[in-house]
Amino acid sequence: MMSLPHRLLPLLVWSAILAVSRASDPKLVDKAWDDASMLLVQESYTKFTTAQEVKGGGAREIEYGIGVNLLNLQPKTVRNINRAEAIFTRLIASNPNDEVGIASLYYLARLEQIHRNDPNVPKALQLYAQLIAEHPDHFYAQSAIAKVAILKLCATPTTADKRQALAEVEKLAHLLKEPAARCNFNLVVSTACIQYNLGDEKALRYLIEADTIGIPIQFSEANVLIRIGNLALRLGKRDIAITYFERFLKEFPRSTRAFTVQQKVKELKGAKS
Q: Residue 54 in contact with residue 29, Cβ under 8 Å?
């Protein structure tokens, strides 16, 4: 039997591990997760629904699968979103501490954040905060920290408010144990620092830390190297700028930006001599 963990996060996060009990027709459930992993939402939903009917009840894994797919069925309807909310709420109430209960809390927060016609940001923040407080080391809680950072930094209207939000968000950094989650958090915070003028020095520090951890997507890595180089240049840190621009040229020599970066490196090295 193919193991479940690599397919239990359709549509959002595929690398998390969610080990749950098997249904009475495990092959059908496996196929449902396979469909979900390929973004075949309708097919996945149909298989989960069939598995639920065959079982004659609602195994937690099957209910969870139905709930996640309801968030993404097309066309998206208020009825389906409300059904997903009811499923996640029921799964949390019956057992908030098993893998399905924890995952359901995460998706309930996501539901309020991005799946409502009118997103409920305070409710999403409350649910993410609950997840982080109750299961701080769990993959979903680790992922939630970056979501909290995005919501808090984007929702506040003024620079003063954003500085306060940044201070609150930075207090969560010590909870980050998963490298990928920490990298994502660093990228979110650095972007906010640049976009909202919250400090180039701080943005540079977060970007360098993200690069040290390892950027998971090559295209994003290229952008990060360029962003570090430009920030360092703006801050007068010529050696850092040269280091990251040269890394970009070495790792992405065929990029359309390579010629421009080469010219910058020549100018910087010429200014040093």
A: no
CB 238 within 8 A of CB 267: no
Among candidates 66, 57, 7, 67, which has minimal Cα distance to 31? 7
Cβ contacts of 12-16, under 8 Å, gap ≥ 24:
12/110, 13/139, 13/143, 15/180, 16/103, 16/139, 16/140, 16/143
Residue 166 CA, distance from chain mean position: 18
| pLDDT at res. 271 | 72
The DSSP output letter for 9 is: S
247 token code pair: 């890394």
In sequence order, which residues have a C-beta less than 8 Å from that of residue 162 and are 6 or more positions away? 153, 156, 192, 196, 198
pLDDT tens digits for 1-41? 333 333 344 333 333 323 333 334 568 888 999 999 999 99
Q: What's the chain's Rg over C-alpha atoms?
A: 22
> Which residues lie below 8 Å from residue 260, measured CB to CB, with a gap of 6+?
none
Contact criterion met (CB below 8 Å) for 141 and 132: yes
* CB contact set of 208 (below 8 Å; sequence gap of 6+): 228
Q: Containing H/E element for 147?
A: helix 139-155
